[in-house]
Amino acid sequence: MLKNIDPLLTPDLLKALAEMGHDDAVVLADANFTATSLAARPVIHLPAVGLLRAVQAVASIFPIALDEPHPVGFMQVSDTPAGTTTQLQRDVIDFLATLGLRRDQCEAVERFAFYERTRSAYVIVQTGEMQPYGNFLLRKGVIAEALRR
Q1: What pLDDT digit, counting tens, does each position of 80-131 carry?
Q2: What domains can you pick out in the chain, each with its CATH number?
Q3: pLDDT band at 48 (very low <50, low <70, confident <90, very high)
Q4: Is 22 labeled as catalytic in the residue annotation?
Q5: The predicted structure's pLDDT at residue 42
Q6: Catalytic pick among 22, 41, 90, 119
Q7: Three-class SS of residue 102?
Q8: How far is the C-alpha of 145 from the C-alpha of 119, rounded, in Å?
Q9: What pTM was estimated for this model as a whole?
Q10: For site-directed labelling of 125, which of 35, 50, 102, 138 has its Cα 20 to 30 A away?
């Protein structure tokens, strides 16, 4: 047992997140996502967990690359006008905003382009989220001291 670690963070997930370097990506996906066919590594499953809760758990220890224009991508709902988001997507973006992420740093990504980005992700975490288009990609930032000169 570890103190102050979200219980949703399994040993495999903790290991994967710790191994990631700056600008590596983690994809948090819904239950319908084609994770296994897109993954370069084994998929980590959190089958009884919704997407927002999984994002909250990962973000509790994961530095998001706030210095990038779009460190967060989410799957755009097909056949909808630009700017359309689901309630789940808005909830996740609102949560990320509490961590210092500006809403314009969250980028809607067309479905097949999202699949392409997923192919190079370090890890895919497939949740039990039943809401379609509940798929987010988070880029890892750095934890560092100020430069010494």
Answers
A1: 998 899 999 999 999 999 999 999 999 999 999 999 999 999 999 999 999 9
A2: 20-139 (3.40.1650.10)
A3: very high
A4: yes
A5: 87
A6: 22
A7: coil
A8: 32
A9: 0.94
A10: 102
